[in-house]
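User: I'm writing a tutorial on reading structure tokens. Could you give me a worked example: one chain, its sequence, then its tokens, then a sentence or two explaining what the tokens reveal?
Assistant: Sure. Here is the example chain.
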Amino acid sequence: MNWLSILVPVYNVEPYLAECLESVVSQAGEGVEILVLDDCSTDGSWALMQQLAARWPQRLRLMRHERNGGLSAARNTMIGAATGEYLWFLDSDDKLLPGAMGELRQIVQSQAPDVVLCDFAVWRERPRLKHRLRGELHRRSFSGPSGTLGRSRDVLLAGLLETGLLHAWSKISRRSLWDTSLRFPEGRYFEDMMAMPLMALRCASFYHCPRPWVAYRQRGDSILATMNERKALDQAGALRPLAEALGTQGHAPALRLAWALQCARNYTGAMRYLQRQAATLGEARTRALAQSLREAFEASSPMTAQQLQAACWRKGWWLRGARFRRWWNIKW
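And here are its predicted structure tokens:
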């Protein structure tokens, strides 16, 4: 039985794919399967996948969609095909850092958690001193206990939401958590933020390794760099599935606050897009979209806007509270 399945979705990443897969193959020992799915790329990604499969016989398991379905659909197809006890989602323009898989195996063998959380490094083509000063060589993805087995679902969720770094590739989870009722939402943006808290709800145990295992490539065509109305609405409502699954009442104060703050970050991020586009959208459309974003916050957050502002004041987070109040009360 394979102990690990690494799932790599591919779409128009020919310049990056070989480096990504080499970082995996070089560490993958016995019991590791590597699934690579081409989602109808229009560049040379599929041909490159075939070349790499010939270069590494028996290592890569190639798959291909007949029609483009998007990132969520590609991941969902691979979840259904995977055989490993654990799943590791890796984007095809990123790479694993040396030693990552060995450390993961040691944790799995010694602790057997439902999910393993790892940190990451930001990978830039032209890194500068300011990037180092920002701590991009080691970004912590979890705010909570490290190096020990945790068993509190509230601590796990609060630690994930406090950082806001809910990407799938920093969380290696048991395949058994991903039954047919849990999949990435297809046709939506911010799919990681919608799906990963739902995965965390199913975990009875977790383990955070405070070392970077993934090099995350910073690209200029990311979702946040190319916002539009649809993305803004998906961002503002990204935690609505969590609210629907868990309800917004009766949770530990630390979880409620971390959850509400992430909803506020989602809301303000979407509102920044709206402010930039207000002149183009026109007054009526801008007001309607702003109201939709407020409704998305209210449906997603365990706190009202007023409760969150008061909590920020009590914590002494004056700037954070004032920033949110500004975006909540903005008028067009």
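What the tokens reveal: The mean pLDDT is 95. The radius of gyration is 20 Å.
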